[in-house]
Each structure stands twice: as structure tokens, then as C-alpha cells.
Amino acid sequence: THINHIMGKVVGAIVVNEDRCKGCSLCVVACPKAVIALADRKVNVSGYPFAEAVRPDDCIGCASCAIVCPDGCITVYRKKLD
After folding, report:
1. What distances in angstroms separate CA 28 from CA 1, 36, 81, 82, one per listed residue?
2. pTM for the model
3. Least C-beta-crowded within 10 Å: which of 17, 27, 47, 60?
4. Distance between CA atoms of residues 13 and 30, nearest Å
5. Which of 7, 67, 56 is nearest to 34 (CA)?
């Protein structure tokens, strides 16, 4: 008996190195799901508003944010939900 396995949905999670972020907002523009925004009324050790996941449940793990980040501040994790 052959059973077709339906692939689970891929979800993503991002981790931002907030202290390295310069607040350029390239990741905010690159994200197709509007997951990322610059911190509102918060700054990092260098005085920059940093990127943060404001809608983490919407992340699809596409890594567009990590690809465009000039300082390599974003790590993207992907997992498949079964």
C-alpha cells in the first residue's frame, strides 16, 4: 500500500542580533509578510532603533531579511510542521 505523505507547512523564526543592528530597515522592506519592524521608542547599545519580529507567527522562513542585511544581524530558522 502506497501512502502519499502531504508535506507539512514550513514556518520560520528569525533571531536578530539587536546590538549589531544599525536600523537601516532593509529587512523591513524585504520581508514579504511584514514580520519585521524597527523598534518603537527603543534603541540598542549604539543608539539605533533595531529590527525586531513584530509578527513572528507570520514568518515563512524565506530568509529575504537575512539576505539583504548588510551587517549579517539576522539568522533565520525554518521548520516543517507535520
Report:
1. 48, 5, 25, 29
2. 0.84
3. 47
4. 15
5. 56
Helix or strand (DSSP H, E) at 26: helix 26-30
Please enumerate in sequence order all residues whose Cβ is within 8 A of that of 17, keeping only pairs 6 or more positions apart, or say none: 73, 74, 75
pLDDT in tens, the chain (82 residues): 555 555 678 899 999 999 999 999 999 999 999 999 999 999 999 999 999 999 999 999 999 999 999 999 999 999 888 7
Contact 12, 77 (CB under 8 A): yes
| Dist CA 75 CA 79 (whole Å) | 13
> How far is the C-alpha of 27 from the C-alpha of 70, rounded, in Å?
9
